Fold this sequence. Notes:
With 297 residues, this protein is of the alpha/beta class. The protein has eight helices and 13 strands. The chain has helices spanning 13-29, 63-71, 129-138, 151-160, 170-175, 211-214, 220-236, 281-293, and strands spanning 4-9, 34-39, 76-80, 92-97, 105-108, 123-125, 143-145, 165-169, 184-185, 200-205, 244-250, 255-262, 268-276. Strands 2-1-3-10-4 form a five-stranded mixed beta sheet, sandwiched between helices. It has a five-stranded mixed beta sheet with strand order 7-6-8-5-9, sandwiched between helices. A three-stranded antiparallel beta sheet has the order 11-12-13, with helices on both faces. The longest helix is centred in the first third of the chain and has 17 residues, at 13-29. The radius of gyration is 19 Å and the shape is globular. It starts with a strand and ends with a helix. The relative contact order is 0.16.
Amino acid sequence: MKKTWIVGTRGSKLALRQTQIVVDALSQANPGHDFLIETIRTTGDTVWDKPLAQIGGKGLFVKEIEEELVRGGIDIAVHSMKDLPAELAEGLAIGAVMVREDPRDAFISTRLTSISDLHGGCRVGTGSTRRKAQLQRYREGIEVVPLRGNVDTRIRKLTTQKLDGIILAAAGVRRLGLEEVITEIIPADIMVPTAGQGAIGIEIRRGDEAAGLLGAIDHDRTHREVAIERAVQAAVGGGCSIPLGIHARMEDDRTDLSLSLGNEDGTILVHEKLSEKPGGEQALIEKASLILLEHFR
């Protein structure tokens, strides 16, 4: 087995922070091996003036990285699991999933003390159709302002665009050491996270020797939870253009699966929680898929 490995990632501050978390864990678990970080510019990093749903949705932050992995220019790819399409590029596999940070969304405001303070006429920034639909379900009359950019940029726009609040993934804010700006973590029954949110995934070539490095850093429960979420997402073809929240949580006595599906106009079609006893994960996936597919016909 070779001793130096090239780890590919996006060049954003958050992506580099997440990749450093992976590299530190890999280095500790595999003494004598070196892990070098290489940044790769993706389509999602080059187009900032349009919503993600208008320029392709899922895959915008991974396509070029996967191409480099297939080509052999890198050995390991690090992604936010929520950015990975349900279908990976041919020949690739998810080799490990790190223990998940808080998967919920964060409400950030300098004017309000809680998301419950929102009322008709408030202006809230988000670039996510999922967050928009669930936000408008929670409070009628909210003006949702399209918001893109890295975490720092979006926090800055809270002031420059005179917004009453913005919504970001709590995990990214925390990993960047900006937890103090969070006004409130939004309960998952109000805003169901997207599949994979809060989890870092490591992608490799299927059958590659790099797999031997990853066992020690793979978090079994997170990996299984994310697999459930991605299986439901794959069954319904969910991407960034569909306001779809899917969140699995495995407990000792049951597995819960929260779903939220909306229309692009903000109308919520499904917003519920399902549960199965341990071992019933496949039944849970099938039940959830059937409920969601009823609204795709």
